[in-house]
């Protein structure tokens, strides 16, 4: 596995170098034209000198910022701001060097270098991420993880991380203070040793990381484990899972106060201008779609009238801050498509009861099941689509809630566009008679009336790793402590 990661890193570095060289060269050709570069050797030498300096600074800073670390190679969109920083400082260094070396620097060329190199690096990462996920499907580039702490939270973290194809992580065992080695915690996963044996067990099981569950270990084990995994010769990286992560509405970031590392809880991401923009887009898009679909609604109206029934039916669901509203849909029998049956809910989007993208609409009957997430799940408007539509059919209540919590914590307009694109793509597949991974919101006769039905696989990992990586779930299982 280490060999695969080295191959991936070398490939990305190589294409980054080639991309920057091509970007700088293309900017010079566009700005100065080939004939002028051939005739004026001073400009050509200046472009080469400054380009080499910019290349060196960009790569050095990208390395220093961690863009070539294992977690960043397949870690999603978080790497792109770091690449932007590296490219920007590379161009700034070219500007400074050109001033002191008295080289004929063109501002147009520098701007061209900046824009072209950003595009080249982003394109390089997108291509390599696709390649990396192809390797992952063949069993490569999978991080093997030990969970230190076999309490309820440890089980939930293990269940979420044990997904090689989806997240590129595989749990290989538990370390625990209280249960004997060999005790099976989850099907196929057992306690392999005490936390003090982390280094030997990591080498034996070829583990890459150990995740410490703070609420599942004694203070002495936490301290000893932290000391062992931070040793220079440690074969594993150490991570810490916050004890109340499943209840947080917002994400958390590490910060330092008076030299003390602390987790800072971010405010709700969607506020101010972002919230206003989301509302505006919801109303514009839903209004346009209602207008465009009006002939279809007219057909359904005539069909319903011919049968002597009303075209629409509604159910009471919970929305923003738990406020009830009626979610409208087509009456059963007017269409055989469950997706088309939900098109009238665009009226709910126009009325601002729903959003185009958001958490799954919950019925009143489900409220007891969502009690511990209640404040978080109702922090945003429910969505006509969302991450919950792009999930396997048998997802339980807690896993579905985890997807909604992830959306609430990480809600951005970019994420909304990604979800809308993926939803649209699956709808096109379904309309062409191809197998669709799109789940649907269905009312059943059971007490837990909302269930997901649809595809059995997760959406394409290359497109959705930056969306779902790290989504927590709450779960119970064997080995749970009181």
General description of the model:
- There is one protein chain.
- The chain is α/β, with parallel strands linked by helices.
- It folds into three domains: about 1-135, no CATH class; about 145-245, NAD(P)-binding Rossmann-like Domain (Rossmann fold, 3-Layer(aba) Sandwich), CATH 3.40.50.720; about 270-470, no CATH class.
- The protein is built from 17 helices and 15 strands.
- It has helices spanning about 1-30, 35-40, 40-65, 70-75, 80-100, 105-135, 150-160, 165, 200-205, 220-230, 270-290, 295-305, 345-350, 375, 395-410, 415-430, 460-470, and strands at about 145-150, 170-175, 185, 190-195, 210-215, 235-240, 250-255, 260-265, 310-320, 325-330, 355, 360-365, 385, 440-445, 450-455.
- The chain has a six-stranded mixed beta sheet with strand order 3-4-2-1-5-6, sandwiched between helices. A three-stranded antiparallel beta sheet has the order 10-9-12, with no helix packed on it.
- Helix 1 (about 1-30) runs antiparallel to helix 3 and helix 3 (about 40-65) runs antiparallel to helix 5 (about 80-100).
- The longest helix is centred in the first third of the chain and has 31 residues, at about 1-30.
- It is globular, with a radius of gyration of 26 Å.
- Mean pLDDT is about 80; it is low at about 445-480.
